[in-house]
Amino acid sequence: MIPVCRIEDLPEGESVRIEIDDATPAIAVFHAEGGFYAVDDTCSHQDASLSEGYVEGCFVECPLHAALFDLRTGAPTCLPARRPVRTHQVDVLDGIIHVRPAVREEAVA
Fold this sequence. Notes:
- This is Bifunctional 3-phenylpropionate/cinnamic acid dioxygenase ferredoxin subunit.
- The protein is globular.
- It has one domain (2-100): Rieske Iron-sulfur Protein, CATH 2.102.10.
- The protein has no helices and nine strands.
- It has strands spanning 2-6, 15-18, 27-32, 35-40, 54-56, 59-61, 68-70, 87-93, 96-100.
């Protein structure tokens, strides 16, 4: 698990972008609807940072073309996005938010 920040450092309705290494896509961590959620930071429609998007309820709106994603499932709820973004497990341990990145699915030959 990767420590992100203390819970008091991420107010509700806000997000933070974390970068793990060059091989792992950046992750956006959100405090929304009283919970913490993590998704891949890049919109599945076009290269835009979801951590810079507008958060309302459990949804984030992409800042580039207004695609809306459900933070709980990663599913897009409107066009232009058609593909979901990957979600990641979030745990709070001793007041610190941690993310467990989802395992990347490898292409099957």
